[in-house]
């Protein structure tokens, strides 16, 4: 098994005919993902990459039965695209778009609260269940099907960790990139819970960073309810206070959201915290023995 | 993006927030003119001169002074404009004061006691709601209040569907101990402040202090705004408020090349694709015995041009004793990045600090070969651990 996506997921691409959408939809299809079409307002009725294009998400859902959507629209249209997908009844919305205003995401979160959609992201690499489906922009070939779940706020740093795991023979059940923004749909804890409940996941890697308290929240839950070994890394041990480190959400606001504070609490909660990002894979191999 | 106090106050005033009035001045003569004009408009007899720099704690550093006559205005302005203002937020070098705000004196005697409060609006990341944070302990550093009197800080979460509601504004005003006219003024102040916060897509509005004057008016005496960079596309008028003098020149240059750069104080420069990996690379440098000199995310592409621009920015800093380039090739191929590094290196010529290039991912081996065969003084690595050891060797 895996969580969130597998070979049965029917995936729509919002922003399908744009440059990013076209490029990554192609790679997703190549990976074996069941992409069933896309949405670009004004281009409905045409075909793109051999698949139908629709004007609205609800039309696309009606025609294809899609249950998953991946969003590549520019940031100024990001919030609208997410809400359109939710309104059309899409169960899993993966927003890759980087740069959506925080105020827009506050509205989105409120909108989603009364609907049955799960949002992953925005500003994330997406989700991959290796060997089954890839809904996102991560390089497929570094992954390998297996039993480690990965939850991360970052893109390339996740690839780094996955690459270490794969080279040690540790495949992945599902890797979830939850996104680097201050307001996101699925928290570290939400993702951890999914993986704890997954029969095929034997160990979990949490890659966090400075800012917010999501990793702490997850750690406290794991202490009480965790049933699988967890390896954790927090990026930004050397980041100065009050400066945004690339990600909109990676900013130290107080004493509680520094890397050191998070690592200390995670350690106390029984998570195997590594100081060096070079040791994520190795540590997981050790604790699984 | 950050803006100055005088710009923040303009935004507040446009949204109906009562402020301590003031006029910005770039020279002592302008300061005197501003003082005269303010006297005419507000009736103020004394003036407060405030250095306009992007840093808090200006009062303690000598950046806020009271002038009791026009001669004092001129004298204080002469000393303040051009000074290096050092506060706990500027670092030891301080910031050059290029302009001052000449403001009316709002601490005049009157029938009631003056009072100072703290109020800010910001995002509560946990709930995803905008939140008003306030305290009766105004005028002092809010972090100090949080440490010493955490029970004196209150929060009011704003429902995204409804915005701030009247009962919330009343609750805040009651909690601040207000009554009568001051109470009414405070509820108006809160509504206007939230309107200002929303209208510019701020990520933080902080008013410290909010003053209850001796004649029961509620005024914003200081104002700090942080604007959400992601929302600036819908506020072209705010982009004009950007003051490049207040920003690190290297960071301004980096932004011109679409590079995400943060200057730090260390001795090992780094260039990385992706923000998370960039932070992790800084951490590796520290664990290897160095100190990161910067944060630099070159984004997904890492072409020869971006590598060249990035290397230039890093090598501008004389403190840099080594450079670590760390690229994880996913979509981008490592051999292409390697060629970019070699090209940029040759173009820049005289690089006299060791450069370590770590390429991992698509075509990593081919990338390493390109670096090793280039004949340049560049060390190559494939795993992160190898790169860490190379950093250890050179620092």
TrEMBL record, chain A:
Q: Which GO terms describe its molecular function?
A: nucleotide binding; succinate-CoA ligase (ADP-forming) activity; succinate-CoA ligase (GDP-forming) activity
Which biological pathway?
Carbohydrate metabolism; tricarboxylic acid cycle; succinate from succinyl-CoA (ligase route): step 1/1
Keyword flag Nucleotide-binding = yes
InterPro entries referenced in this protein's UniProt entry, alphabetically: Cit_synth/succinyl-CoA_lig_AS, Citrt_syn/SCS-alpha_CS, CoA-bd, CoA_lig_alpha, NAD(P)-bd_dom_sf, SUCC_ACL_C, Succinyl-CoA_synth-like
Give the catalysed reaction(s), semicolon-separated. Answer: GTP + succinate + CoA = succinyl-CoA + GDP + phosphate; succinate + ATP + CoA = succinyl-CoA + ADP + phosphate
Q: Which NCBIfam families match?
A: PRK05678.1 (NF004230), sucCoAalpha (TIGR01019)
Summarize where substrate binds, as residue positions.
159
- Which residues act catalytically here? 247
State the UniProt keywords alphabetically.
Ligase, Nucleotide-binding, Tricarboxylic acid cycle
Give the matching PANTHER family.
Answer: SUCCINATE--COA LIGASE [ADP_GDP-FORMING] SUBUNIT ALPHA, MITOCHONDRIAL (PTHR11117:SF2), SUCCINYL-COA LIGASE SUBUNIT ALPHA (PTHR11117)
Name the family the entry cites: Belongs to the succinate/malate CoA ligase alpha subunit family.
Instruction: Give residues annotated as binding CoA.
Output: 17-20, 43, 96-98
One GO cellular component assignment for this chain's record is:
succinate-CoA ligase complex (ADP-forming)
Question: A Pfam family in this protein?
Answer: CoA_binding
The UniProt function text for this chain reads: Succinyl-CoA synthetase functions in the citric acid cycle (TCA), coupling the hydrolysis of succinyl-CoA to the synthesis of either ATP or GTP and thus represents the only step of substrate-level phosphorylation in the TCA. The alpha subunit of the enzyme binds the substrates coenzyme A and phosphate, while succinate binding and nucleotide specificity is provided by the beta subunit.
| Biological process terms in GO annotation | tricarboxylic acid cycle
The annotated subunit structure for this chain is: Heterotetramer of two alpha and two beta subunits.
Q: What is its EC number?
A: 6.2.1.5
Q: Does the keyword tRNA processing apply?
A: no
Q: What name appears for this protein in its UniProt entry? A: Succinate--CoA ligase [ADP-forming] subunit alpha
Which residues does the UniProt record annotate as the domain CoA-binding? Answer: 4-100
TrEMBL record, chain B:
> What cofactor does its activity depend on?
Mg(2+)
Q: Which UniProt keywords apply?
A: ATP-binding, Ligase, Magnesium, Metal-binding, Nucleotide-binding, Tricarboxylic acid cycle
Enzyme Commission number(s) of this protein: 6.2.1.5
Binding residue positions for substrate: 273, 330-332
- Residue runs in coiled coils: none
Catalytic activity from the UniProt record: succinate + ATP + CoA = succinyl-CoA + ADP + phosphate; GTP + succinate + CoA = succinyl-CoA + GDP + phosphate
Q: Which pathway does this chain act in?
A: Carbohydrate metabolism; tricarboxylic acid cycle; succinate from succinyl-CoA (ligase route): step 1/1
Q: Which residues bind Mg(2+)?
A: 208, 222
Listed GO cellular component terms?
cytosol; succinate-CoA ligase complex
Residues the entry annotates as binding ATP: 50, 57-59, 106, 116
Where does the ATP-citrate synthase/succinyl-CoA ligase C-terminal domain lie? Answer: 271-388
UniProt GO MF annotations: ATP binding; magnesium ion binding; succinate-CoA ligase (ADP-forming) activity; succinate-CoA ligase (GDP-forming) activity
Which positions fall inside the ATP-grasp fold succinyl-CoA synthetase-type domain?
2-210
**Cofactor comment in the record?**
Binds 1 Mg(2+) ion per subunit.
Gene3D superfamilies to which the protein is assigned, alphabetical: ATP-grasp fold, A domain, ATP-grasp fold, B domain, Succinyl-CoA synthetase domains
Which one GO biological process term can you cite for this protein? succinyl-CoA metabolic process
HAMAP family given in the database record: Succ_CoA_beta
Q: How does it assemble?
A: Heterotetramer of two alpha and two beta subunits.
Q: What does this protein do?
A: Succinyl-CoA synthetase functions in the citric acid cycle (TCA), coupling the hydrolysis of succinyl-CoA to the synthesis of either ATP or GTP and thus represents the only step of substrate-level phosphorylation in the TCA. The beta subunit provides nucleotide specificity of the enzyme and binds the substrate succinate, while the binding sites for coenzyme A and phosphate are found in the alpha subunit.
Q: Which family does it belong to?
A: Belongs to the succinate/malate CoA ligase beta subunit family.
Q: Which PANTHER family match?
A: SUCCINATE--COA LIGASE [GDP-FORMING] SUBUNIT BETA, MITOCHONDRIAL, SUCCINYL-COA SYNTHETASE BETA CHAIN
Protein name per its UniProtKB record: Succinate--CoA ligase [ADP-forming] subunit beta
Q: Which gene name does the record give?
A: sucC
């Amino acid at each position: 098994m895996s969580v969130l996506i597998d070979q049965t997921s029917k995936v729509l691409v919002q922003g399908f005919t744009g440059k990013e959408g076209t490029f990554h939809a192609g790679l997703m299809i190549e990976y074996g993902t069941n992409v069933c079409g896309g949405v670009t307002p004004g281009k409905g009725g045409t075909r793109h990459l051999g698949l139908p294009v629709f004007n609205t998400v609800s039309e696309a859902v009606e025609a294809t039965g899609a249950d998953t959507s991946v969003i590549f629209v520019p940031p100024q249209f990001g919030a609208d695209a997410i809400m359109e997908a939710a309104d059309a009844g899409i169960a899993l919305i993966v927003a890759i778009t980087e740069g959506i205003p925080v105020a827009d995401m506050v509205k989105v979160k409120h909108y989603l609260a009364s609907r049955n959609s799960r949002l992953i992201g925005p500003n994330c690499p997406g989700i991959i269940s290796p060997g089954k489906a890839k809904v996102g922009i991560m390089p497929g070939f570094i992954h390998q099907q297996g039993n480690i779940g990965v939850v991360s706020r970052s893109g390339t740093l996740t690839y780094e960790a996955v690459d270490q795991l794969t080279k040690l023979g540790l495949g992945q059940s599902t890797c979830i990139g939850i996104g680097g923004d201050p307001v996101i749909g699925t928290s570290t804890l939400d993702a951890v819970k999914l993986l704890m409940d997954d029969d095929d996941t034997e160990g979990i890697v949490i890659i966090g960073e400075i800012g917010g308290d999501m990793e702490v929240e997850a750690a406290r839950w794991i202490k009480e309810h965790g049933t699988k070994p967890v390896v954790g890394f927090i990026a930004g041990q050397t980041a100065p206070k009050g400066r945004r480190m690339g990600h909109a959400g990676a900013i130290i606001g107080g004493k509680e959201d520094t890397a050191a504070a998070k690592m200390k609490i995670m350690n106390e909660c029984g998570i195997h915290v590594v100081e060096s990002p070079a040791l994520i894979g190795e540590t997981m191999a050790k604790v699984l023995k | 993006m950050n803006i100055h106090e005088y710009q923040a106050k303009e935004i507040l005033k446009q949204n109906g927030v009562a402020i301590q009035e003031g006029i910005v001045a770039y020279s002592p003569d302008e300061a005197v003119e501003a003082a005269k004009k303010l006297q005419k408009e507000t009736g103020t007899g004394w003036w407060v001169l405030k250095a306009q720099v992007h840093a808090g704690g200006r009062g303690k550093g000598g950046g806020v002074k009271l002038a009791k006559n026009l001669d004092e205005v001129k004298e204080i302005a002469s000393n303040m404009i051009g000074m290096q203002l050092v506060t706990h937020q500027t670092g030891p070098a301080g910031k050059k004061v290029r302009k001052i705000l000449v403001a009316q004196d709002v601490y005049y005697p009157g029938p009631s006691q003056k009072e100072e409060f703290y109020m800010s609006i910001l995002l509560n990341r946990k709930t995803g709601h905008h939140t008003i944070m306030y305290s009766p302990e105004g005028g002092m550093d809010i972090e100090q209040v949080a440490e010493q009197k955490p029970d004196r800080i209150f929060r009011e979460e704003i429902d995204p569907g409804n915005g701030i509601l009247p009962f919330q504004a009343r609750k805040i005003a009651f909690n601040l101990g207000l009554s009568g006219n001051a109470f009414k003024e405070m509820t108006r102040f809160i509504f206007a402040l939230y309107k200002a916060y929303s209208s510019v897509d701020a990520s933080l509005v902080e008013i410290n202090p909010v003053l209850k004057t001796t004649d029961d008016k509620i005024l914003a005496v200081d104002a700090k705004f942080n604007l959400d960079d992601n929302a600036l596309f819908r506020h072209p008028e705010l982009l004009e408020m950007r003051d490049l003098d207040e920003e690190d020149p290297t960071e301004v240059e980096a932004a011109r090349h679409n590079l995400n750069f943060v200057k730090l104080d260390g001795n090992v420069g780094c260039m990385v694709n992706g923000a998370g990996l960039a932070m992790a690379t800084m951490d590796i440098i520290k664990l290897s015995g160095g100190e990161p000199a910067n944060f630099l995310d070159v984004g997904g592409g890492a072409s020869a041009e971006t590598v060249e621009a990035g290397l230039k920015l890093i090598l501008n800093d004389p403190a840099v004793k080594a450079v670590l380039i760390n690229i994880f090739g996913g979509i981008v191929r490592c051999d292409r990045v390697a060629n970019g590094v070699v090209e940029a290196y040759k173009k820049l010529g005289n690089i006299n600090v060791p450069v370590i290039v770590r390429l991992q991912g698509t075509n990593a081996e081919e990338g390493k070969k390109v670096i090793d065969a280039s004949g340049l003084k560049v060390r190559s690595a494939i795993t992160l651990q190898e790169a860490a050891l190379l950093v250890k060797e050179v620092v």
